[in-house]
Amino acid sequence: MYGPSSPDFTPPLSHKARVIRLITGYHKVRKGDTAQGYHQSLIDITPQRVLEELHSLLSEEGV
């Protein structure tokens, strides 16, 4: 899961990974700009979205 950072700069290290990201580009975040230390774009990723990606990935792997 990616918030304001870009997977282009710090991509997953596995070819089996999925990127879940709700914003495009890079967004600089200043300390104190986020609620409870998390960018809103991370907070907005729902558990349902994560589960959908997980099920899709597992299906591709035949699990």
Structure commentary:
It comes from Salmonella enterica subsp. enterica serovar Bovismorbificans. Its EC number is 2.-.-.-. Keywords: Transferase. GO terms for molecular function: transferase activity. The structure is a single chain. The chain has two helices and no strands. With 63 residues, it is mainly α. It has one domain. The longest helix is centred in the C-terminal third of the chain and has 15 residues, at 47-61. It is globular.
Report the average pLDDT across residues: 78
Shape: globular
Structural class call reads mainly alpha
What is the rounded distance between the termini? 22 Å
Q: What gyration radius follows from the Cα positions, in whole Å?
A: 13 Å
Order of helices and strands: HH
Annotation field: number of helices: 2
Residue runs with pLDDT of under 50 for 5 or more positions = none
The count of domains is 1
* Number of strand elements: 0
The main sheet comes to: none
Helical coverage, percent range: 25-40%
Protein name: ADP-heptose-LPS heptosyltransferase II
Enzyme class: transferase
EC number: 2.-.-.-
GO molecular function: transferase activity
Draw up the topology in text.
Blueprint: H1 40-43, H2 47-61
Key features of this structure:
about 60 residues; mainly alpha; about 30% helix; globular
